[in-house]
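Hey, can you fold this one?
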Amino acid sequence: MKVLHNSKYCTHHYDADTATMHSNWFKETEKMDKEDFKEEINTWLRVSKEIKPSKIYDYCVNFIYPISPDEQVWMAHTLNPGWIEAGLKKYAHIVPEEFISNLSVDMMFEEFFLMELENQFEIKHFADEEQQNAKNWLLE
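Sure. Predicted structure:
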């Protein structure tokens, strides 16, 4: 896998064989400030647009930064159009088991769908224990 970005908050790799970007967020996200958060999201979008993945495997089990409602809207309006333009088809979101039943997991992604953009990609949430299911879903 090709390393696209590596910081103290996350790493992004690309598997050309499956056209999948793998994103892994670290516990250090707890120490991010708003500027760090925006910089990481903008970097994520930039590297996404460069490689144009058809799938993203986003491992957020260790993501701790509390995304405010305003940041959720900004993030959705930043990433969603850019990922659609890049040709993204599927997005697997891996979160802790307790977040699966928590509606707040869907709050930011709800904004993606409210935008009603053409060619909207599929988004599916998976518990950490379901990583293999997420990988299988991405590759179907």
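Residues 65 and 88 are 25 Å apart (CA to CA). Let me know if you want another pass with a different chain boundary.
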